[in-house]
User: Fold this.
Amino acid sequence: MRHPLRRVLAPLLVALAALFALPAFAKPVPLRVLYLDQSVGWKHAPVLRPDGGGPAPSEQAMIAIGQESGAFTAEVTQDAREITLQRLESVDVLVFYTTGALPISPEAWAAVQQRVAAGRLGFVGIHSATDTAWSYDGPGETYTQFINGHFAGHPWTQGTPIRIETLDLDLPLVGMWPVGFDYAEEIYQHSDFDPARVRVLQTLNFADTPLKRPYAVPIAWARQIGQGRLFFTNLGHTLSTWDDPRFREQIVEAVNWTGRRTAGSATPDTQRQFLWQLKALLAYEPVAGRDDKAIIGRLLKMDPAWQAATAKRIADLRAVYPGKPDSDRAPFEAAYKAVLAEVLARAAR
Assistant:
């Protein structure tokens, strides 16, 4: 007769033996990336294919980054017509490094948006992805609304010294960068940018950037669209950036995040954007003895409705800022001095 204890332990021992015999947990299947680097107009060096044929430098980089990280496999194309309803079925993340009016069909663009909103497709925009737009009146948003900005000049040309501030170090999307760091890149400013729709993750710090503007200039942002995710970075103009291990890591994290493999908030940061609008406004013309830190501290306690309206007034200075040295500065000077006077008066109350 079997001992009662053996009857209890036997099944447990069998289960433990089976557990330890299991193979190691399999790694997640790599995400499937479609990298579009089509240029309808200006072509950046990273997307130029050699005369003799072969992939462009950024195409080589995307393929290599995916292989080295194991996070994704990348297919590349310079023809937006390849983005079809059928092709999208085999894509997890779209990555755009594009310029101009892309030949993407209304049906395909509607499908991209539907799949993103459903959490079935991620979207990553690199550098000139915001120098991209085409006519569209179908369901959803235009491309500019979708990515939340359109190219409005690049005062910071290739090699211009800039200081970048990283705002969310705890997010893998930007955690590879220091809090503040000097860089040399071509940086876009944008029209049609709405801070209420995105979370800004990096921005120019005009306290330490020689070429200043009186309005904030975001470097990177993230957007939640339904169940899906979008990430954009201003970086990527130069070949040296594509060789930067931090930028390459950021691409991996952007694919993982938009592909819903990692967590991270894209909650809009409207008050923080108000803060950076104030910082840009006050840094544009520093005044000896003025306590900008104290001014900002008082204004951050003001009514949120006033903060939002003031942030918009500061951001709107971009539209009247003189584009050339010999431009008429009167409209800008009037608008700039008016908003600065109101800000200082409010802080003095």
Residues 270-347 form one domain.
